[in-house]
């Protein structure tokens, strides 16, 4: 099948476009409420700046998690698995702990934030490419081994960082804790444009590959019979997953350390497949990003402005995601 035919076949139908328009409109309303609801009469410019920075960070993270989860589930052919299983969060904690243990608090603070951000993304992507390249050379039968290796590496990274934490002094431990706790409030103005650019490149590449992803979702044998080069396509897709997850993790911290990221991606993809009801990634990818953004913005606004941070959004995500996970297992909807 030619590239032109693939892209024509992947054009979203009119109903799908209406769904995306509705989700985008809902996100616009959520963003406006986030920026202007309860705006005090004091220094409005300063408050708007802080809110816009936090909103931009939430949008980038939501886009990265939503799109990467759809891509990962397409490759793994399983709607229960999420990219957090590959140990990126544990690697991030190990990187932060290693930097603080090696250079001390003063040396860690002296590293430029943009350089540190790019180094973290590069290291996490390099590890993913090394892992995927070595395990996916013989086709899809190595997917299970790749996932199992990711789980084992995650345990190893957590053990190594735990050992290093026990060796450093209490002051350095406090810095490690502060740098590895997920927080949208610590969004850095210098990092957001870089993260948004990298995330945009990853999403644009995923949308460009959407027709081939539709073929990839049919399974290895069907994809190969239709002329798709399966192994390079799987490697490219997992590389995009690594980029998107790395950017999200480096921006706000290891979202999967406390559990909500795995369930957040699961909730997003479950809602995406339920609303879209199509196999076309030209619809699934933007819908997942919009749904994730709506959940984050509305949820964060509810817990900050209505409940006054009496609880955490991650608690609700873990609870709802756990119930949805059990629902998928009990209903036998795991492919």
From TrEMBL:
- Classify the protein's membrane topology as the record does: Multi-pass membrane protein
Q: Does the keyword Disulfide bond apply?
A: no
**Location of the protein in the cell:** Cell membrane
Main site of residence?
membrane
The record, for Pfam families, names: FecCD (PF01032)
Q: Which residues cross the membrane?
A: 16-36, 56-78, 90-111, 117-136, 148-168, 190-210, 231-251, 257-276, 283-303, 309-330
What one GO molecular function would you report for this record?
transmembrane transporter activity
Q: GO CC annotations?
A: plasma membrane
Coiled coil: which residue ranges?
none
Q: Which GO terms describe its biological process?
A: siderophore-iron import into cell
**Alphabetized UniProt keyword annotations:** Cell membrane, Membrane, Transmembrane, Transmembrane helix, Transport
* UniProt family annotation: Belongs to the binding-protein-dependent transport system permease family. FecCD subfamily.
Name listed for the protein in its UniProt record? Iron chelate uptake ABC transporter family permease subunit
Instruction: Look up and give the organism this protein is from.
Output: Paracoccus aurantiacus
């Amino acid at each position: 099948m030619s590239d032109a035919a693939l892209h024509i076949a992947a054009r979203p139908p009119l109903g799908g476009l209406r769904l995306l328009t509705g989700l985008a409109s809902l996100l616009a309303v959520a963003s406006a409420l986030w920026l202007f609801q309860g705006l005090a009469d004091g220094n409005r410019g300063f408050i708007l700046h802080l809110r816009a920075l936090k909103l931009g960070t939430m949008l980038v993270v939501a886009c990265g998690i939503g799109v990467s989860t759809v891509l990962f589930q397409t490759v793994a052919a399983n709607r229960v698995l999420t990219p957090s299983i590959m140990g990126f969060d544990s690697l991030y904690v190990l990187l932060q702990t290693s930097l603080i243990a090696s250079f001390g608090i003063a040396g860690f603070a002296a590293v430029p934030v943009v350089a540190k951000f790019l180094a973290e993304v590069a290291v996490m992507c390099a590890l993913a490419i090394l892992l995927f390249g070595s395990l996916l050379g013989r086709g899809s039968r190595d997917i299970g081994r790749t996932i199992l290796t990711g789980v084992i590496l995650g345990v190893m990274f957590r053990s190594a960082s735990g050992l290093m934490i026990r060796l450093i002094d209490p002051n350095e431990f406090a810095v490690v804790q502060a740098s590895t706790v997920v927080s949208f409030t610590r969004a850095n103005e210098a990092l957001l444009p870089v993260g948004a650019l990298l995330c945009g490149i990853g999403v644009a590449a995923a949308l460009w590959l959407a027709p081939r992803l539709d073929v990839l979702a049919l399974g290895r044998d069907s994809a190969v019979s239709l002329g798709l080069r399966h192994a390079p396509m799987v490697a490219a897709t997992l590389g995009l997953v690594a980029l998107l997850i790395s950017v999200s993790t480096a921006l706000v911290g290891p979202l999967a350390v406390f559990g909500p990221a795995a369930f957040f991606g699961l909730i997003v993809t479950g809602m995406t497949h339920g609303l879209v009801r199509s196999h076309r990634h030209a619809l699934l990818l933007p819908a997942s990003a919009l749904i994730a953004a709506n959940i984050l913005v509305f949820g964060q606004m509810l817990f900050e402005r209505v409940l006054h941070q009496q609880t955490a959004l991650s608690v609700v995500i873990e609870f709802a995601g756990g119930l949805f996970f059990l629902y998928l297992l009990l209903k036998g909807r795991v492919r």
